[in-house]
Amino acid sequence: MKRLLIALMCAATSITARAAAAGQGPTPAAAIPAQAPAPAPAETGPTPPPNYIYIPDGRRDPFLSLVNRGVETGPGADRGASRPEGLPGLLVDELVVRGIVQTPRGFVAMVGSPTGKTYSVRPGDRLMDGSVREITAQVVTLLQDVNDPLSLEKQREVRKYLRGEVK
Questions:
Q1: pTM of the full structure
Q2: All domains of the chain, ordered by start, with CATH?
């Protein structure tokens, strides 16, 4: 072990001596001229990012994460603060069919919201992320807008049954 340490120290000393002879080695402290300390850079704070504008032309944005794809990013993505009042502020997934009534003009469905309020809907009524397509005696058919950039379908059909799910 001692021999190895001695051999390493000798090798390091000879390398340093050769470098000093060639003028590449460390300079003695006396040879370095005294310099004034460099002024500290002024703190300007973080620089704002450049303005980002992406024109998709049918392609997906490469800077959007694919991990959260399918998550709502449009109106109502925050699920609360910017929702309109009443039926236009409800999402398709939140609706529960409470009852279906037949009138001379067709069927009317009574749907419940998560807040406990009940609304009457007719075919053609708009919701936050879709619309009412059709109402029959047992089912309310809704068209839900798909907000998935990788999906070829822009709308999907959702059926809400009066008495449980029928297959």
A1: 0.50
A2: 87-161 (2.30.30.830)
